Amino acid sequence: MDEQQVERLVKEHGLEAEAARSYLSAADEYNAEEERILGGVFGQVSGPVVELGAGRGEFTRELLGNYLKPGQRLYAVERLDTAAAKLRESITDERLEVINSDSVRLPLPDGAAGLVVSRAALHDFVSDDGDVAAALRDCVRVLAPDGVFLVYDKVSDGFADVERESAEGRMERMNVELAALEGRKCWGLHRSGDYRALLEDLGLGEIMLTLLDTPDFPAYVGMTKKTIEEKRKAYVKRWGNGVNGILDGLYRDFDTLPPRALPMVIAWGRKYD
């Protein structure tokens, strides 16, 4: 364990040193299990990889550094123009090609990829009708026969009422409420079985699911409040003053909710010819 990380958590979030060490130790175990599972899946794939919703490139960097083989191509798909441009500027790796597109119509030929991966993106998926499967069918088209579709996302397994038992669970409802301000639908939190059903709906087989228990972050509530407050003006600019009621309601609920973390599911299936 890096004591500098301990000191950072103590300084930035006001944690006791022992609580910081306990969290970091649990996070190390989580990360090791994540790498073991993902490494096993990626180790089976030799063709190009497509990453959906690359965003700021956190997972893109992990893919390039930890999972892709030398010379293996990575297509990082990002629908926002500005985010795609920043991604191109920030990562210089000859294996990477940033594609400014959404998942509905990928500018790639049939069977171009050995693996398509989505990490922590589908639960935030927003569309007019909320039909996630429809938005992902083109991703299956670009998979080669025997190619793998892998989803890695937050789920509500283990909670009877996730919004009343977890601050993070309550936070995820905000995304649904913000989408509703635009008259749109956000897929929101689901259980791991729903991801299995999604992969089956996409026509994939040999489906496997692994549930990972995420360590609770004691400073989650304070950190999240600070982050959202910094973005409040931007939220109001985009969604109007109605967003203030949503944020204020979130803050009130946060005062009574524990920082229990949501588990993550790694679900993958194989495309048959």
Q: How would you characterize this protein structure?
A:
It is a single chain. The protein has a single domain (3-158, 186-217, 261-271), classed as 3-Layer(aba) Sandwich (Rossmann fold). 47% of the residues lie in helices and 20% in strands. It contains 10 helices and 9 strands. The chain has helices at 3-13, 17-42, 58-67, 81-90, 132-141, 162-165, 167-181, 192-201, 220-239, 242-254; strands spanning 49-52, 74-78, 96-100, 113-119, 126-127, 143-154, 185-186, 204-212, 264-271. The strands form 2 sheets. Strands 3-2-1-4-6-9-8 form a 7-stranded mixed beta sheet, sandwiched between helices. It is globular. The relative contact order is 0.14.
Strand content: 15-25%
What is the element string, with H for helices and E for strands? HHEHEHEEEHEHHEHEHHE
- Look up the CATH topology: Rossmann fold
Unreliable stretches (pLDDT < 50, length at least 5) are none
The radius of gyration over CA amounts to 19 Å
Shape, per Cα inertia axes = globular
* Share in helix: 40-55%
Helix vs. strand class: alpha/beta
Give, in spatial order, the strands making up the sheet with the most strands.
3-2-1-4-6-9-8
Main pleated-sheet profile: 7 strands, mixed
* Total beta strand runs: 9
Total tally of structural domains: 1
Average pLDDT rating: 93
Top CATH class:
Alpha Beta
| Oligomerization state | single chain
CATH-wise, what's the superfamily? Vaccinia Virus protein VP39
Count helical runs: 10
**Could you tell me how far the N terminus lies from the C terminus, measured between alpha carbons in angstroms?**
46 Å
Proper CATH architecture: 3-Layer(aba) Sandwich
